[in-house]
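Duplicate of #3305? Posting structure anyway:
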């Protein structure tokens, strides 16, 4: 038996060649939601690097669901067409599966990209009125309008329509973004959801809209393609969303037929006190996996080393590992990890001559 990290895994009708996932990363490089040549190269490099699954950045289901004016989106067919070159590159040149994260930023929408200023973009400056479960602002951002029935239905339908387009574009997996303080997380957390109707209050009510969205996406997305969800397992704020509620929510999402869950955390409140360190979110994946065994689990957060990733899998904490920032630094992380663990990973034929095993002159040092 080789290392678990490089053992294939089946998610519904899709077999991943290994358990390394490129975590979604916003690029703030789109105009009108469209992907472009940046995305072909940026995402494509991870396919060449041998990741089992690459998930695109948070992709907005409607224009006002974008975090910034420069986010990718999938609200119309022009957006869909812009993604074809990305998908075609993966199908033609890599063995990696390609997923797309579908998102709505809710009250955290209409802000500047990290390199473009801070806080909200004014409505006259290319920004827009944000929406949320309740008219309660995130610190330093504009006050959202509380969604009414029409608004809720429109967003639920936008998620479903985006899932149909994602299938049309050829993506292998959809991940619903219910983490990091964005719209669906805003419904889940009692800190941001202070509604008094059937969508607020008790846990069952707070889960209602996210579950309606998950159900609509499940119906819209082919039954033989895997569906995922990303949650924040805790708000890191006393009295907020926590692991116990996450387990309840994960059970409901699993019952809808979702295949895989990424256990992240935080992003909902400026009062959060996050305890970081290597693998700091792995215990959340482990807790949800133990309680919801039908759901495959992705651990994420400060996983940077091959041995560390392997241990997370062999200890039974998760089924896959996702990496974000380390991939920005080392897009060929899977190749380097395979070398360290003594495993095989897919290498494009054009790159085979770079493999250390074929270069005896290479000093074999840790990467
Ligand atoms: C540049 C950047 C953009 C990100 N964008 C997203 C995103 O679009 N969706 C998401 O769920 N998480 C996003 N994240 C969070 C990462 O996916 C990941 O969960 C987090 O960075 C922790 O993993 P790491 O320690 O390997 O970086 C982003 C992180 C970075 C660094």
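Output from current build:
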């Amino acid at each position: 038996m080789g290392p678990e990290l490089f053992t294939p895994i089946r998610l519904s009708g899709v077999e991943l060649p290994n358990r390394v996932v490129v975590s979604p990363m916003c690029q703030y490089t789109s105009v009108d939601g469209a992907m472009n040549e940046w995305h072909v190269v940026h995402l494509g490099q991870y396919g060449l690097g041998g990741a089992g699954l690459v998930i695109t950045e948070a992709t907005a289901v409607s224009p006002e669901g974008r975090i910034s004016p420069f986010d990718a989106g999938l609200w119309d067919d022009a957006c869909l067409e812009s993604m074809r070159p990305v998908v075609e590159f993966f199908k033609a040149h890599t063995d990696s599966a390609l997923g797309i994260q579908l998102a709505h930023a809710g009250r955290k929408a209409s802000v500047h990209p990290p390199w473009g200023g801070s806080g909200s973009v004014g409505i006259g400056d290319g920004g827009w009125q944000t929406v949320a479960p309740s008219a309660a602002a995130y610190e330093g951002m504009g006050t959202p309008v509380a969604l009414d029935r029409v608004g809720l239905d429109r967003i639920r339908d936008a998620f479903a329509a985006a899932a149909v387009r994602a299938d049309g574009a050829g993506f292998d997996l959809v991940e619903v973004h219910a983490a990091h303080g964005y719209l669906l997380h805003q419904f889940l957390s009692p800190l941001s959801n202070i509604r008094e109707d059937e969508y607020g209050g008790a846990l069952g009510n707070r889960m209602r809209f996210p579950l309606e969205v998950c159900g609509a996406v499940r119906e819209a997305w082919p039954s033989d393609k895997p569906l995922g969800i990303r949650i924040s397992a805790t708000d890191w704020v006393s009295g907020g969303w926590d692991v116990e509620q996450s387990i309840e929510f994960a059970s409901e999402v699993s019952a809808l037929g979702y295949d895989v869950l990424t256990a992240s955390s935080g992003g909902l409140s400026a009062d959060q006190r996050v305890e970081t360190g290597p693998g700091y979110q792995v215990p959340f994946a482990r807790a949800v996996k133990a309680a919801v065994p039908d759901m495959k689990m992705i651990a994420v957060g400060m996983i940077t080393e091959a041995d560390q990733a392997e241990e997370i899998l062999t200890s039974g904490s998760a089924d896959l590992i996702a990496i974000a920032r380390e991939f920005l630094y080392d897009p060929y992380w899977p190749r380097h990890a395979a070398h360290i663990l003594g495993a095989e990973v897919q290498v494009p034929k054009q790159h085979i001559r770079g493999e250390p095993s074929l270069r005896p002159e290479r000093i074999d040092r840790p990467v």
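Confirmed duplicate; merging threads. The longest strand covers residues 53-60. Residues 4-358 form a domain with the TIM Barrel fold (CATH 3.20.20.70).
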